[in-house]
Amino acid sequence: MSHTELDDVLGKGWRKPPFVKNAMLRWALIVGFVAYLIAAFLTIEVDWGRVYEGLDRGWAFVLAFTSPDFISRWSDIWSGLLESIVMTVAASVVGILISIPIGLGAARNIAPLPIYVICRGIVAISRALQEIIVAILLVAIFGFGPLAGFLTLSFATIGFLSKLLAEDIEAMDKVQAEAIKASGARWMQWINYGVQPQVMPRLVGLSMYRIDINFRESAILGLVGAGGIGATLNTAFDRYEYDTAAAILILIIGIVMALEYLSGIIRARVQ
Amino acid sequence: MPVLEQEGTQIWRRRTTGQSLVRWFGWLLGVAVFVYCWQIISASTTWFFVWDAPRIANDIWTRATPPKWDYITQLGRPIWDTLNIATLGTIIALFLAVPVAFLAARNTTPSAVFIRPVALLIIVSTRSINSLIWALLLIAIIGPGVFAGVIAIAIRSIGFCAKLLYEAIEEIDHTQVEAITATGASRWQIMAYGIVPQILPAFAGIAVFRWDINIRESTVLGLVGAGGIGLQLSASLNVLAWPQVSLILIVILIAVMISEWVSAKVRGAII
């Protein structure tokens, strides 16, 4: 920021400094944004009549939350929920186990260049592909059922966890790792005593967070036939059984809240 | 300090016998749960399809390559719709998230007993349900189309934006707020000159970050009928037009990469 003398600004009113300093850039951004908004609104087709008709159904759905129906489809809900939980647990375990070596390989200060490139490539592919798209492809390859969902979630876990683990390893304190190396440690010992204690709290925290995400994602995999509660939910919506759908949504929200609470406790204990 | 008596000498150990037994049982329990989950997955899998998977994958690959490049002429409008869903959804979500965040932050909420829990409930419930499920619900209510996608993205983003924003509000420097208060400013003036300038960079960062995520999510919303390029994807999948599917996947990948690049650039410029 340029230096201004107090005498220069005395007697002038104060104005808020603008968020974007360059005036040309600021106006270009504003004009461009407004132009885009106009173009976007003009091309969106909204059938207001249809929306108006739907308001009653929307209200019926909101009311359904006050009287959710857990009972009449309980066996379907229970089997879907169990499948979701099973997929979450299995995929989290496998995903975390695989993402540790890949995370080590994707950290530039540990891995040699060729391994680094390969591991970063795996991370990039896994992060760029959406869970639901991966699920579609895996259902096409492995057939319907929770196996496709399990593989999808494991694959997504690898991208998420390896990237964050690698970033954490790259940001670690070098001194401690060097001290272990100077004592004549082998590679495994170096990782085990020099690197692992530094990243462990964050790894545990991220793993808990990922379990939480995996459960939320497992709720939609059923839409494409990859197992879990999503199929039940989809059926409930298709049949306009809002009270059953509300019950499923309440269960999902409840489990996610419980998982978040649990992961909060565990993260507070490790840190 | 736990020690082990062995031939008259004391050997240091990390844990007492009781502690290591507890840990051992913990691991045993974990492994048992995983094996149980795997059995459930395995029981509902048709293993014949799995053994056949390499051949199927190879078959799909040969069908999908090369991508049908001239199909791209039909993808212009869907991409524009996808962009609109993500951008308009993010804007609506930000408008709704700001008041929720101010009501949820401990230092700005009007009532910590009555209003804050309601705001937190809004945040948790919108965050824990995936945008595909919101889209499914909105399609049942207001009919298929781009508008349902916009609203689905907006609802889903409220919780995410409000959560990050209220954490930023809680972390503000209180001395600045006090300085503005000391000048005799009203409640709204304190808001505008004491709090808003402090959270504006965080707000811009959150907005761009969420926009990036929303681009990813809006590419698949079409799978349930909520507009965008996902509609083309699901149509191509339904008629097994694999060369079109592969082209759409490439387009989605490029869109995701561009949005990630834009978001990283903007956040780098702000922070």
Automatic annotation (TrEMBL), chain A:
This is Phosphonate transport system permease protein. It is a multi-pass membrane protein. It comes from the Bacteria. It is found in: Cell membrane. One of its GO terms (cellular component) is plasma membrane. Keywords: Cell membrane, Membrane, Transmembrane, Transmembrane helix, Transport. The keyword Kinase does not apply. The keyword Iron-sulfur does not apply. Pfam families: BPD_transp_1 (PF00528). The chain crosses the membrane at residues 24-44, 77-98, 135-161, 243-262. Coiled coil: none annotated. One of its GO terms (molecular function) is ABC-type phosphonate transporter activity. SUPFAM superfamilies: MetI-like (SSF161098). Its main location: membrane. InterPro entries: MetI-like, MetI-like_sf, PhnE/PtxC. It comes from Ruegeria conchae. Belongs to the binding-protein-dependent transport system permease family. Residues 81-263 form the ABC transmembrane type-1 domain.
UniProtKB/TrEMBL annotation, chain B:
One of its GO terms (cellular component) is plasma membrane. Residues 79-263 form the ABC transmembrane type-1 domain. It is found in: Cell membrane. The chain crosses the membrane at residues 21-41, 85-105, 132-155, 190-209, 247-264. One of its GO terms (molecular function) is ABC-type phosphonate transporter activity. Keywords: Cell membrane, Membrane, Transmembrane, Transmembrane helix, Transport. It comes from the Bacteria. It is a multi-pass membrane protein. SUPFAM superfamilies: MetI-like (SSF161098). PROSITE patterns: ABC_TM1. NCBIfam families: PhnE. Belongs to the binding-protein-dependent transport system permease family. This is Phosphonate transport system permease protein. It comes from Ruegeria conchae.
